[in-house]
Amino acid sequence: MTDSKNRLLKVALELFANKGIDGVSTREIAQRAKVNISAITYYFGGKTELYSAVLEYIKTTLKQDASAIIKELNYSAKIGDLTVKESKEIFRRVYEAVLEASFKPKNMYMSMILAKESVNPSKIAIKVFTEKMFPLTQEIMKLVAKITGLAKNSKKTILITEILLNKAMTFGRDKTRITFTLGIKDYDEKTISLIKNIVLQQADLILDYYAKEQK
Fold this sequence. Notes:
- The structure is a single chain.
- The protein has 215 residues and is mainly alpha-helical.
- The chain folds into two domains: 1-45, Orthogonal Bundle (Arc Repressor Mutant, subunit A); 56-214, Tetracycline Repressor, domain 2 (Orthogonal Bundle), CATH 1.10.357.
- The protein is built from eleven helices and no strands.
- Helix 1 packs across helix 4 (47-73).
């Protein structure tokens, strides 16, 4: 990918996240990317096609991130042999990785776009939600079932998994609102650490609650 095309994608990602596709012009994108406006037509065809390219970029990035986490786990073949304690340790490591990723600027912008798309999803966005994130969701669902004792595909297991994942991504997606409420300009390491600890503790409480409910 050329430098100009790459810059256009990165700038478009940020601007579309903050303003939506209708709130930003091709001229603004080109100026921020420091390229001639004709470069958008040359590389993508127009603003709509550039937005599609941004969604494809999100899809590819999420696929790579999810695959890396799943590969790191390397436990699927022996999930039935794991103890609850081992399952908790693996879950915490995976959940912390998802939470950590949500604070990266690039991922924050992606989450903001996906949040907008969740209201009226395009065909590409639907692929992002299903094809690319679903494998990771399935792996986490296995851990939730193992820890709680719930059936893997029960409504409770699915909803617990989705709620926990949504909570992990909220702090990146809603950064502007959260930092304003906290009275700070941006996340610092201390604030991120505090958020992570609270979210991880909440996840532990939720899983422990349903584990006790099954006994």
